[in-house]
């Protein structure tokens, strides 16, 4: 079993804080009531920079803090009540999305950093996250797949693609500025 280093603990806490800070950027609420936030960019960065297990741990730590009542979600939301909406699947999917993003990044070590980060961000930060979010939406609403995709996915895809590009660019810049600084590539 791999020993968790002090550096790992610091990085996990730092990226949980990054997700929280990205929640301070004012959210944009669509007519459907769904908020668009920058926090999914933080989830993507957890995976692209930290890798699968560290990224998932950072996202899980963030989720735990929110569920304990800290108002860290965009708009200052926190507590168990966040699980009661049809949109909570995005929140619940954060650790899974960070894990998949990091896993793709780790598997694409031979590819350029930006390519691995973009692929990871799309497959983890969008596809994996949406699988969880859409399933949650269909169960809680209740709704069929068509409504879930139309209401809970399509409005977000353009913004999430922009976030995936930003995650790739930030990850690439970090790798250039500090070679060896990406646990996801180590």
From TrEMBL:
Glycoprotein keyword on record: no
Source domain of life: Bacteria
Swiss-Prot/TrEMBL keywords: Cell membrane, Membrane, Transmembrane, Transmembrane helix, Transport
Transmembrane residue ranges: 55-75, 87-105, 111-137
Molecular function GO terms recorded: biotin transmembrane transporter activity
Subcellular location per the Swiss-Prot or TrEMBL entry: Cell membrane
Membrane topology: Multi-pass membrane protein
Gene3D superfamilies for the chain: 1.10.1760.20
Pfam families noted in UniProt: BioY
InterPro entries membership: BioY
CC per GO annotation: plasma membrane
Protein family (similarity comment): Belongs to the BioY family.
Name of the featured protein: Biotin transporter
């Amino acid at each position: 079993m791999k020993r968790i280093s002090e550096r790992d603990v610091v990085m996990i806490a730092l990226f949980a804080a990054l997700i929280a800070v990205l929640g301070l950027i004012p959210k944009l609420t669509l007519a459907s009531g769904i908020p668009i936030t920058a926090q999914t960019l933080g989830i993507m960065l957890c995976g692209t920079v930290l890798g699968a297990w560290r990224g998932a741990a950072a996202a899980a730590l963030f989720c735990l803090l929110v569920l304990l009542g800290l108002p860290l979600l965009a708009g200052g939301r926190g507590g168990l009540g966040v699980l009661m909406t049809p949109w909570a699947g995005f929140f619940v999917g954060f650790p899974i999305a960070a894990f998949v993003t990091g896993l793709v990044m780790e598997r694409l070590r031979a590819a350029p950093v930006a390519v691995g980060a973009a692929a990871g961000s799309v497959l983890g930060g969008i596809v994996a996250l949406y699988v969880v979010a859409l399933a949650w939406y269909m169960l809680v609403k209740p709704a069929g797949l068509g409504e879930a995709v139309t209401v809970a996915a399509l409005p977000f895809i353009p913004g999430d693609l922009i976030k995936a590009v930003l995650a790739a660019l930030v990850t690439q810049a970090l790798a250039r500025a500090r070679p060896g600084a990406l646990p996801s590539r180590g």
